[in-house]
Write a structure and sequence with these properties.
The protein is mostly helical and 324 residues long. The chain has two domains: 211 residues, HUPs (Rossmann fold); 83 residues, Tyrosyl-Transfer RNA Synthetase (Orthogonal Bundle). It contains twelve helices and five strands. The strands form two sheets. It has a three-stranded parallel sheet. The two termini are 29 Å apart. The protein binds tryptophanyl-5'AMP (TYM). Tryptophanyl-5'AMP (TYM) binds next to strand 1, helix 1 and helix 6.
């Protein structure tokens, strides 16, 4: 049976970009595959942060994932730093990871250009990601489009390690994308991302969602309400495709093309489609917040389950390498 692994940083907010690009797939895949999902806190310490804040964000992310439908009866959910094998294998992989490839990673280049002094952790970030995946001998990795380059590098690292020891032990992982592999931010300029402040949070109250949707960028060529619109180029229409029923999507497209509606009408329908899916998630998150011991127990069980697989893999890798 194929194994699934994926991770998410405790960035403080699960937004509809992460949700549509990755988490919705996690929820589907947990029914079909042996799945491991991790809140990757070690990935979140490559920049400056407040320790108490990180602790809170890690918990909040676990709550959001559980509320979104990640079911600990069906999969393993854990916090990365509680399974020390991740950093141990990352060191091992550092010894086969090509520096040139690390330096060519788009995310490294973007983030490094914003740092005064560039830290090695930022450069080696994808090596830890490769270790996350390899430890569970996972082949299917549900991610958004922005992670494809990191997965290609993970394949390269695994290939090099296998070749060095002349074995076929670690598996080359494949990305598994949703139809909504890249959700643009409400500014319509860049991918939706917490650091760019262009998100809708998964747990945002309806009034907050509306305050964000109302000014959100639509079809740039449509200036007046009476101008016909082009749904295909409108970011709001892309979000409709993710949240609204096929009938509603068709109706919205028709109303837009024929100028039957203004953009604000279209956004009102989107808000109600979103609320139908997100309302129950918000309610579950509220329940989970009121029961912190349930979340603690879930994560503690997840650590035990993950560690069992991770330590067996690491031991075998060490044997192969002559470290045992
Ligand atoms: P992170 O925390 O930035 O994002 C979590 C997941 O959400 C996807 N995503 C998006 N998808 C579509 N549109 C968007 N606007 C959008 N924003 C985020 C991401 O592609 C990702 O799947 N390095 C990873 C975490 C990680 C990981 C791993 C992933 C660590 N180890 C091993 C897979 C396997 C990251 O920072 O994701």
């Amino acid at each position: 049976m194929a194994r699934v692994f994926s991770g998410i940083q405790p960035s403080g907010e699960l937004h509809i970009g992460n949700y549509l690009g990755a988490i919705r797939n996690w929820v589907q895949l947990q029914d079909k595959y042996e799945s491991f999902f991790s809140v990757v806190d070690y990935h979140a310490i490559t920049g400056s942060y407040e320790p108490a804040d990180l602790r809170r964000r890690t918990r909040d992310m676990a709550v959001s994932l559980l509320a979104s439908g990640i079911d600990p009866e069906k999969c393993t959910l854990f916090v990365q730093s509680t399974v020390s094998e991740h950093t141990e294998l990352a060191w091992i992989f550092n010894t086969v990871a090509p520096l040139g490839e690390l330096e060519r990673q788009t995310q490294f280049k973007d983030k490094a250009s914003r740092q005064e002094s560039i830290l090695a952790g930022l450069l080696n970030y994808p090596v830890l990601q490769a270790a996350d995946i390899a430890l569970y001998l996972s082949d299917l990795i549900p991610v958004g489009e922005d992670q494809i380059q990191h997965l290609e590098l993970a394949r390269e690292i695994v290939r090099r390690w296998n070749a060095k020891f002349n074995v076929d032990y670690f598996i080359e992982p494949k990305p598994f994308l949703t139809p909504t592999r890249r959700i643009m931010g409400l500014d319509g300029q860049a991918k939706m991302s917490k650091s760019l402040g262009n998100t809708i949070g998964l747990l945002d109250e309806p009034s907050v969602v509306w305050d964000k949707l109302r000014p959100a960028v639509t079809d740039p060529a449509r200036v007046k309400k009476s101008d016909p619109g082009t749904p295909e180029v409108c970011n709001i229409f892309q979000i409709h495709k993710a949240f609204s029923s096929p009938e509603t999507v068709e109706h919205v497209a028709n109303q837009c093309r024929t100028a039957g509606w203004g953009c604000i009408d279209c956004k009102r329908v989107l808000q109600s489609s979103m609320e139908a899916e997100l309302g129950p998630i918000r309610a579950r998150a509220k329940e989970l917040r009121a029961a912190p011991e349930v979340v603690d127990d879930t994560l503690a069980t997840g650590t035990i389950q993950a560690k069992k697989v991770a330590s067996a893999t690491l031991n075998e890798a060490k044997q192969i390498m002559g470290l045992r």
